[in-house]
Amino acid sequence: MEGIASTLTTWRGGVTRLTEPPRATFTRLLRGMTLGRPHDHQQQRRILEATLALLEQDAPIEPVLLDETADEE
């Protein structure tokens, strides 16, 4: 596919797989925490950087499962 490169991150991996996005990161977070726990700037940055890094790869690629959860570290 040609055009503007795109990527996404989601906590709903099962549903998102059905849409076959060209690039995606999945987390084990809860609804409303797509980019990380509230006020957890480090986690939010990790998720955002991992998701944006996928833009460097030619699509389509398999979704990447990030080891990010809603549990406090």
Walk me through what this model shows.
Helix 2 (41-53) links the parallel strand 2 (24-28) and strand 3. This protein is globular. It is an alpha/beta fold and 73 residues long. The protein has a domain at 23-69. Strands 1-2-3 form a three-stranded parallel sheet, with helices on one face. The protein has two helices and three strands.
Mean pLDDT: 93
Low-confidence stretches: none
- Give the biggest beta sheet: 3 strands, parallel
Percent helix among the residues? Answer: 10-25%
Q: Which word captures the global form?
A: globular
Q: Which sequence of strands runs across the widest sheet? A: 1-2-3
What is the tally of helical segments? 2
End-to-end distance, in Å?
Answer: 39 Å
Q: What structural category characterises the helix and strand content?
A: alpha/beta
Task: Give the H and E element order.
Answer: EHEHE
Q: What is the CA-atom radius of gyration, in angstroms?
A: 12 Å
Total count of strands: 3
Beta fraction of the residues?
Answer: 15-25%
Attribute tags:
single chain, 25% helix, globular, 3-stranded parallel sheet, alpha/beta
Helix/strand layout:
Elements: E1 8-10, H1 13-17, E2 24-28, H2 41-53, E3 64-69
Parallel strand pairs: 1-2, 2-3
